[in-house]
Protein 1
Amino acid sequence: MLRVWYRNFKVWLKHLQASLIGNLGQPFLFLLAFGFGLGKSVPEIEGMSYLQFIAPGLVASAVMYSAAFEATYGSYTRLSTQGTFEAILMTPINIVELALGEILWGATKGLVAGFIMLATLPLFGVEPSVWAIGMIPLLFIEGIIFAALGLIMTAVATNYDFFNYFTSLVITPFFLFSGIFFSLKAVAPSLRHVLMALPLSSVVDLSRMLCYGRFDGLASFTIEVSIILGSALISSCIAIFLLKRRMIQ
């Protein structure tokens, strides 16, 4: 698993600048447009300015985009175009280790994107609390979730166009309806329960808690951590199963 991770890391270093710009461009633009633009005309939400409210969620979205895109376009290229997966499997590395290495690498890229976003928040006037250090393991686990989801799509994809379904039907709805831009507490209870079941919703909520040191209580914290850990485990298991089936075929 670590050898697969290290191989991808060495390749990434050759395209470091372009990769970071591609992954961080959209979250930064949303932070500028909504935080400084629209945010001036939006009243406080949950005792925070609109810029403060959306900032932790945009950090989480940077992780989602980076991890998911690496495990789709990047992994599919290694699987289909370059034949890298087949070459790796000619070594003692097995399919499970290959899949876990890909997921670990996607999560690492997600964490890098999220950490850069988090570190630059003070430049926008957002001051995280000391509890923000807890966002690092949280964002890494989030990266595992979306890297695994991306690898699931890679395992069933027939071409690059297939990923348009993933982006349009999964990533974009998660981005819009996981509480990044509006409080889920203001949504009707029946719909709120559905939206809170999305793994990104729990990540966004916990990121907001940790970023400012404002905790809603142990019960909600435990439930959301359980949702995130469960999502990471289930999505990883499915990704391993489907990739193994794809490679055998």
Protein 2
Amino acid sequence: MRFELPANLKLVHRMTMPLRWGDMDAMGHINNTLYFRYMEVVRLDWIFNVGGARAEPGADDQGPIIVNAFCNFLRQLKFPGDIEVTMHVANPGRSSFETYHRIARCDEPGVVYAEGGAKVVWTDYAAGRSAPMPERFRALLT
């Protein structure tokens, strides 16, 4: 099932990464859990690169967490090869925004193997609840 992309979608990041032998499962294709990992790697790479959080545990009192994630598996990825994962953002609010990802093989430009995303909420870690996003970070989303 394909999903409808929001009108205010903004491309913010893309990464190329290798498919690894160990990513395969007993069925001979990339295990479905890895698609979520690929999206996570791109999301965190972008967040760390723009200063939205620091990678060291306990480094920040506030930062992003995901509250849901989804993936539509359109084609089976198989080893070997490289993939390109793109990340778009949309619908920034006071404390949350949405991410959308597309996964494609580098040797098949334009062929989407999976699409998914996550809702990200800026969180006060000590209080365990949402907090307003810093304006410097929110500005990156619009």
Protein 3
Amino acid sequence: MTSFPRARWRPFTPWQALVALATTLAAFLLAGAALAHNVTEGDAGYVQEVTGFRPIAFIYLGAKHMVTGYDHLLFLAGVIFFLYRSKDIATYVSIFAIGHSVTMIAGVWWSISINAYVIDAIIAFSVVYKALDNLGAFRLWFGVQPNTKAATLIFGLLHGFGLATKIQSYEISPDGLLGNLIAFNVGVELGQLMALALILTAMTHWRGRPAFARQAYAANVLMMVAGFALMGLQITGYFVA
């Protein structure tokens, strides 16, 4: 499921690899850490001021968060990279959603928080982990294949803590809190489904092309580089802040 198709690799030329790497790093450095698990200034003000149960508003905020949450989407793209059957895709996405939902709601409800830089660095590591898994690195290095479902659940739990930590910093009103959290989570899952639909459409088209086998290797290497870049941003932020 997580192994590459058997094919003779023809990696990018040095110039292609350099351009792809530079583009990836530039995109994340320009985006900055502000986008990961973040809420825009206007949305943050609304979250801080609103009281009572506001399901439509929080569903919208949850969906907006997910479609702009590149760390979530990178990890999910890695999870489904070599999943071809709809049943397998649904299984893994559901596992991730369960983990993400549990810790997001429980973290806010019981005020369980982790330093934002630390948790986002761990989330960035999940992208690195999944890219290495797709590259078959663990079988090559250690002779074992980690349980991919367990890993997906664990990282789902950690992704949820990332958002819970951010939400707590905005001190949402306790009036209607549980209902708003559930609504927010519904929005997150709806946003996830929309984003995955686009990702799957693009990947289905890509998989049908003869170049997929050789490009898949490079894509996962770049995904790993992106994960390391995000880790670097968060670790730097931890020591600078």
